[in-house]
Amino acid sequence: MDAILDVRNVQKALGQGAARQTIIGDLTFRARPGEFLSVVGPSGCGKTTLLMCLAGLYGVDAGSVSFEQQEVKAPPAGMSVVFQDYSRSLLPWKNNLDNVVFGMKRVAAPAERKQAKARELLQAVGLAGYETHFPWQVSGGMQQRVAIARGLAAQSRLLLLDEPLAAVDAQTRAELQDLLLDLARRFNQTCLLVTHDVDEAVYMADRVIVLTRRPTRVLADLEVALPKPRDQLATRERPDYLRLRHEVITMIRSMRQAS
């Protein structure tokens, strides 16, 4: 099966002059259509920088990023990003419905069809009845649901998730993990999740990509053969879940100790 995302020998440095540092060094991996990938690594290794390169928001210094067999030089149609800071990514002067409609700027459709699709997506993320509320009138978890709906509204085939659940409480985080898995299945999304949370990474993924310290490379590409649908209790109690979690944590801890 052809890769929907093909990352080959990517290198990226940030900064100017003597302060310039290589963040990503010769990094390669692929994502197949319909996969859910988690990306983890030591703090500060460059996970968000990598995601910005994948999204076309940063240019790469060497190597290439291809989405659906086309090299990424700018943010491509068919790819969406859900950011960690939902309070800044949503437009506070637009209500929830209009925030989701805003995600369809590249979609060629009549306004009434976009409105209907936005309502459908808000219902899919559990926000029916909150269409006319503004982001600042709802909880953080609800704001992130609006941001997820907006990402889906763009008719994306690849959803990039930059620590999207880091700022919500533990109960909401678990609910949103299961929501994302359900939406990925229902809307046939390929997802790439950047996270610091190893438990989250293993629970949600079909594969876990473990990155090294800077300049970051792929240390391990681990298949997650846990049965689906996942369950917050049953899945996390399985011996194979615990073994994989232990393996990933051990890799990251060994890099910290070596620094």
What would you note in describing this structure?
The chain is α/β, with parallel strands linked by helices and 259 residues long. The protein has two domains: 1-78 and 176-259, P-loop containing nucleotide triphosphate hydrolases (Rossmann fold, 3-Layer(aba) Sandwich), CATH 3.40.50.300; 84-156, no CATH class. It is built from eight helices and ten strands. It has a six-stranded mixed β-sheet, with helices on both faces. Helix 3 (96-102) crosses helix 4 (111-124) and helix 4 (111-124) crosses helix 5 (140-153). The protein is globular, with a radius of gyration of 18 Å. The model has no long low-confidence stretch (mean pLDDT 92).
Write a compact overview of the structure shown:
By secondary structure, the chain is α/β, with parallel strands linked by helices.
